[in-house]
Amino acid sequence: MARTRASKAKKIRHVVVCLRRGKPGAVGVAMVLKSIFRQFNVRARWVHESGLARAVRPGTDAVIIGGGDGTMLHAAQATMGSRVPLLGINLGSLGFLTSIRAGEINSVLPGILRGDYGLSERAVLSAKMEGAKSSWCALNEVSLAPGNDQLMVRVRVKVGGEFLTEYHADGLLVASPTGSTAYSLSAGGPLVSPKAQVMVLTPVCAHAMAQRPLVVGEREGVELSLGSGDGPAVIRLDGSRVGQLGRGKVLRVTVSKPIIRLMHPRGSGFYGLAREKLGWSGSAAGIAS
Questions:
Q1: Of these residues, 69, 170, 230, 238, which one is catalytic?
Q2: In angstroms, rounded to a whole number, what is the distance separating the alpha carbons of residues 94 and 26?
Q3: Which domain holds residue 158?
Q4: Residue 170 known to be catalytic
Q5: Checking DSSP bridges between strand 86-90 and strand 100-101, what pairing results, if any?
Q6: Which of 47, 142, 206, 277 is the most buried (most CB within 10 A)?
Q7: Residue 201: partners with Cβ closer than 8 Å, 6 or more residues away
Q8: What are the beta bridge partners of residue 167?
Q9: What is the residue-level pLDDT of the chain in tens, covering all 289 positions?
Q10: Tell me, what CATH number does 118's domain have?
């Protein structure tokens, strides 16, 4: 689902910058970025989140995002299909999609602007209602949650056309490997390398203990429908409500063609990020690369 490669060829000269308004430290980060841009003769367009989609034009080398994973998800939606890489500066807390801490900008960003960086290409999920012409895309997950005044939802699941089970839970997630570190992780799902070509089915607080998260192949496809007697379920993509799944309808989740390209400092990757963010024991100091 993802490929990671290092690059030294493409220097960064034209960027779009979007810093989450109201985030502590955003003003200081902006001042540091402007100083570095002047030093390296980088042209920057500064935009708010609402103007991000219009700001990414041909010739844009990178989009620099300051915020948390929510800001990165918004940027991913706004730039979907453009192939312009996203570089995240963490102004939030956990930040699995943001690869640079605010205090690292002075030491890390100059190398990236010179072209010394890695790119991780992330596939996205496509969700489409049966019979519909258009579809939705999500970087992290597609989720179903109880609608109206319901407390739980019953979701019938097929994988590769074969009936799997009917989940009875507070919700059900279909997550990408990228999304395995987000809502799915909080709901008890596994961590998955972004290079794995899989999707993860994660029930949220399942009624039956035997109903556990399941990893399926990305080419199998997942079909979701409601159990008998249940009212509409809320469909969310990356946390944003996009519609409802009614009785008798089928929502198909597959892997989409557009990709999101995440930029990161050379030498850093998923496993080091997981070790750091989750506070796993052990140090990488002294380990030969």
A1: 69
A2: 17
A3: 125-257
A4: no
A5: parallel
A6: 142
A7: 157, 159, 164, 167, 172, 173, 174, 213, 214, 215, 216, 222
A8: 155
A9: 555 554 455 899 999 999 988 888 899 999 999 999 999 999 999 999 999 999 999 999 999 999 989 999 999 999 998 999 999 999 977 778 988 999 999 999 999 999 999 999 998 999 999 989 899 999 999 999 998 888 899 999 999 999 999 999 999 999 999 999 999 999 999 999 999 999 999 999 999 888 999 999 999 999 999 987 778 999 999 999 999 999 999 999 999 888 899 999 987 778 888 888 788 876 555 454 4
A10: 3.40.50.10330
- On whether residue 168 sits in a domain, the answer given is yes
Distances (CA, A) of 141 to 115, 179, 229, 248: 31, 6, 26, 23
Domain-embedded: residue 239: yes
Crossing angle for the helix pair 105-113 and 26-39, nearest 10 degrees? 40
pTM above 0.85, yes or no: yes
Distance CA 280, CA 25 (A): 27
Instruction: Examine the domain organization and report whether 264 and 253 are in the same domain.
Output: no
Contact 255, 89 (CB under 8 A): no
Domain tally for the chain? 2
Q: For residue 148, what are the CA distances in angstroms to 145, 151, 168, 241?
A: 10, 9, 16, 14
